[in-house]
């Protein structure tokens, strides 16, 4: 009888969940959040999609025929490339974005280490003060920075942009590294200190390898912020060190906007950082969630 009953139990069809059960409500809630997430993602992505397809239209079609059905052409891309060299602007963006990120990390790592593991009564106040500098409108300090750069010969140079972008991103970089370092167990550093490790060896061989995901995500965010910065590049450069943000702005004029050419230039400007972000999204998510689960 035991064997027969076991076979009957195995052959019995699965029972459906009763109405109003917790599992059913969870599935409905998950479906709702999924639909909401896709809706928000589509709304955010639609301007980028519209910009890309507008770049494949003629100037007349971009203004008179705002539709999804058209005959694609590379005319705008050819005119954009013929008017100004894309490679020079792209090289400036790469040099400035990665150079400022590297410099910001070199400054922020020892700063965040001292605040995380050697705090004082002024540490929290210093962190808040650093973050409060991001609340100041950049135009408020444009004139003094412009005059300083003019007097020391840093106008329209990559070095000048790297310095400005480093100072612009430094508060965010320090804050992120500080939170990552605070999540690290102190026992590991104390063990290394007891084994005779110096402060430099402690940071280089213990702290950095263990917090590498957080450092990587911080660097990626700094690169993206530097790549998209337009205010300082438009005001502190003219031709030699102009990045891709200035390259986009060059296709607007007092007579009006050239929508097709502007869209083509914008697509060429954001394509590298979009590809870079897509390739590093796993490292970004891993770093941003670093220390979230103990």
Task: Provide a short characterization of the protein structure.
This protein is mainly alpha-helical and 294 residues long.
What does this 3D model show about the protein?
The protein has a domain at 85-288: MetI-like (MetI-like fold, Orthogonal Bundle), CATH 1.10.3720. The chain has 294 residues and is mainly α. The longest helix is centred in the first third of the chain and has 33 residues, at 22-54. Helix 5 crosses helix 11 (212-228). It has a two-stranded antiparallel sheet. A hairpin with a 2-residue loop joins strand 1 (252-253) and strand 2 (256-257). The protein is built from 15 helices and two strands.
Biggest sheet: strands, sense, closure? 2 strands, antiparallel
* Average of per-residue pLDDT values: 84
Instruction: Return residue spans where pLDDT drops below 50 for at least 5 consecutive residues.
Output: 1-8
The oligomeric state of the chains shown is single chain
Order of helices and strands: HHHHHHHHHHHHHEEHH
Content of β-strand: under 5%
Measured as a percent range, the helix fraction is over 70%
CATH class of the domain at 85-288, named Mainly Alpha
Distance between the termini: 50 Å
In CATH, what is the homologous superfamily of the domain at 85-288? MetI-like
Count of DSSP H/I helices: 15
- The number of distinct β-strands equals 2
What is the molecular shape? globular
What structural category do the secondary elements indicate? mainly alpha
- Cross-sheet strand order for the largest sheet: 1-2
* CATH structural architecture of the domain at 85-288: Orthogonal Bundle
Gyration radius from CA atoms, angstroms:
27 Å
CATH topology of the domain at 85-288, which one? MetI-like fold
